[in-house]
Design brief:
The protein is mainly α. 43% of the residues lie in helices and 4% in strands. The protein has a two-stranded antiparallel sheet with strand order 1-2. Helix 1 crosses helix 2.
Length: 96
């Protein structure tokens, strides 16, 4: 079990201000975490290869393939103030 002084020391290192109730709750939670770590340390894991993810990941996005798009004229035709084949936007410096 983690003691109150240890929780206060960690809180001080992390520059956290904890109430008395939070210190007691953190002591219990940190003790639980350390119990889990101890249980994992008891397992025989020498033959288990290291992994970066617990489950296999697949790309869930569609393939990035070229396809027809809108023409520049159609898009700029809807712009409020196009200029020289591009969108005209206010300068951020002009608003300052």
């Amino acid at each position: 079990m983690i003691e109150r002084e240890q929780v206060l020391h960690v809180a001080r290192l992390a520059r956290l201000r904890l109430s008395d109730a939070e210190v007691e709750r953190m002591a219990g939670e940190l003790s639980g975490i350390l119990d889990h770590v101890d249980r994992i340390a008891e397992l025989e894991l020498d033959e288990v290869p290291p992994t970066s993810h617990v489950v296999d990941l697949e790309n869930v996005l569609r393939p990035d393939e070229p396809r027809p798009s809108w023409s520049r004229e159609d898009v700029l035709g809807q712009a409020p103030d196009p200029a020289e084949g591009a969108f005209r936007v206010p300068s951020p410096q002009a608003e300052a």
